[in-house]
Design goal:
Largest sheet: 6 strands, mixed
Strand content: 15-25%
Structural class: alpha+beta
Number of strands: 19
Radius of gyration: 23 Å
Distance between the termini: 20 Å
Length: about 400
């Protein structure tokens, strides 16, 4: 990618600064010469901008064992982001619970809090979530003046440009201006980003799990919870961590005339394989007098947790095994469809069902049997351990991603 100097020199300078900072962030530790080569900018331009960023405390020079640069008679120095240069708050509000965390520039969690939702009401959820943010800052002995950005993520269809949650059907949340509502409650004047919670996790992987991804040019992030989504990420010199679509694969129709989904259609993947669908079918089995092992594990009259369901499956509860295996097999077929359509180099998979090694094997078997062998590029499937703060940390990553566009201005 080359940046031409035209008539608007201040704009060109800002564009170059942001591009160089992003290169250092995504590819660091890296030398000035490597940045110059990758961005097709002159070495003096790189040096001038880097020196400015060092003076701002954003970038640092590292001790290096790089070989001698014979053209300049000195060793090349590696450059990297200063992790403590900036702090970001990440928030995930799922409607059932909320999680918040404070991170540095590299995603290191400096503090965290979580709490169950008081109700399914949007306003009450938001009140509780914003109170968690304030409590987190108190825990860390900080104020909002110490925070450079706030990322907020929610399930559902989000307009990231306006910060509006367009729809979350299962909770009847429609056209909620999350950006405005959060800013009013917190009086936070610095940048706030709003994103879908599966997309936020994909951003988190792109920024914070480079070793796991091994610099692949494309990857997908399949997130299974109350809903199911699978955004696709592109990584290139011109588009680090660019999301392609919201990945609402939960509403692919897998079984025409199958169970009704919260969206109103029948046979959606979400209606068969989401946590909510699995729990609902287990509840039906209990109501019919079945699932005896699950019954013995659950407090009487309470909804079974995914942990109890997996324990009952492991113990051989026939009713639970049928429910879970149907959900996992259907997910495997859906993964094959996604792979056939997008051909990502890597697919990360996060879901409580896959704490079980048996379910992981069943999923991959179903996927491999249904992937088109002619066009396949040998996608690597990687299971991510579920973490109650992965969404909040991903939301912080979204805030960092947007900060990198303007931090050098």
């Amino acid at each position: 990618m080359q940046f031409e100097q035209g008539n608007n020199l201040p704009r060109v300078k800002v564009t170059n600064q942001a591009s160089i900072l992003r290169m250092v962030y995504h590819c660091g530790p890296i030398t000035r010469a490597d940045i110059s080569s990758r961005l097709n900018l002159t070495l003096p331009t790189i040096t001038t901008n880097i020196n400015n960023m060092i003076s701002m405390g954003l970038v640092q020079e590292l001790d290096s064992s790089e070989p001698l640069d014979h053209r300049h008679g000195r060793r090349s120095r590696l450059l990297d982001i200063v992790p403590g240069a900036r702090r970001f708050i990440g928030v995930e509000m799922k409607g059932t619970d909320s999680a918040v965390c404070l991170t540095d520039y590299r995603g290191q969690v400096l503090g965290s809090r979580c709490a169950p939702a008081p109700s399914r009401d949007y306003e009450e959820n938001l009140d509780m979530t914003c109170a968690l943010v304030r409590q987190l800052l108190e825990d860390c002995r900080l104020t909002f003046d110490d925070v450079d950005g706030l990322g907020f993520c929610v399930p559902g269809l989000v307009d990231t440009h306006t910060g509006v949650l367009k729809v979350r059907p299962s909770f009847n949340w429609y056209d909620k201006n999350v950006l405005r509502d959060v800013r009013r409650r917190l009086s936070f004047q610095r940048p706030i980003t709003v994103e879908n919670n599966a997309c936020a996790r994909a951003y988190g992987a792109s920024l914070f799990q480079r070793e796991l991804l091994n610099n692949v040019p494309t990857f997908a992030y399949l997130f299974i919870h109350a809903g199911i989504a699978c955004p696709l990420i592109l990584n290139s010199a011109s588009a680090f961590g660019s999301i392609v679509g919201a990945g609402e694969v939960g509403h692919m129709v897998m079984e025409p005339n199958g169970p009704q989904c919260t969206c109103g259609n029948h046979g959606c993947l979400e209606a068969i394989s989401s946590n909510r669908a699995v729990v609902a079918r287990c509840m039906d089995a209990l109501a019919r007098g079945g699932a005896p092992i699950l019954r013995s594990l659950c407090p009487k009259g309470e909804e079974p947790s995914m942990a109890c369901i997996l324990q009952a499956q492991q113990a051989g509860d026939t009713d639970v095994c049928v429910i879970v295996e149907r959900a996992v097999y259907t997910l495997g077929v859906a993964i094959a469809n996604i792979d056939n359509f997008t051909c990502p180099h890597t697919m990360l998979i996060e879901g409580e069902l896959f704490r079980s090694p048996d379910n992981r094997r069943l999923l991959l078997d179903a996927a491999n049997r249904n992937i088109c062998k002619v066009t396949r590029i040998d996608t690597s499937f990687v299971f991510v351990e579920p973490d109650p703060f992965s969404g909040a940390r991903g939301a912080a990553a979204v805030a960092i991603f947007h900060d990198l566009q303007s931090a050098a201005e």
